[in-house]
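Example: glutathione-specific gamma-glutamylcyclotransferase.
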Amino acid sequence: MPLWVFGYGSLLWNPGFDVAEGVHAILPDYHRSFCMRSIHHRGSIAAPGLVLALDESPGALCKGLALRAAPGTEEATLAYLRERELVSSAYLEMRLRVDLRDGRRIEAVTYVIDPDHVQYCGGLPLEEQAEIIARASGGMGPNRQYLENTSAHLDQIGIPDAELHWLRDRVRDLTDNRLA
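Written out as structure tokens, the predicted fold is:
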């Protein structure tokens, strides 16, 4: 049975597994949001950063990519994703219905934020998000690099995100001013 994974953030530009097919997809009732404090990859316990997560919101739609793991790699892909995405238990692994642009409807492994987890921070004002992203850095590098990569890749695949554009531009302003 094929293994599909819904990508909306870093999985778009760094899936980390062999992708046999990538198709534009829509996940209903969730939106992409910087609502998870990052204490490992893009921040630290002392100075958390922010990473994207899928935050449940009835009526919302999140555009992303459905990524089908190469045949024969399903078990290894799932093990890899669990090690990567469930490092702090802030994400919940779910199998959710995803609508593909070509008309297919599939079930995809999807990592959504646990709103009861201590790392959840939904509803932060955009300015506060920008300030956190501008200064944070973790084991995978600066938080602003994560924002830049995700925003650029969404643009490249034809899924521009106005909120991420605003954050990207504001973070650039903040970091340019700190360097001046």
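The chain has a mean pLDDT of 95.
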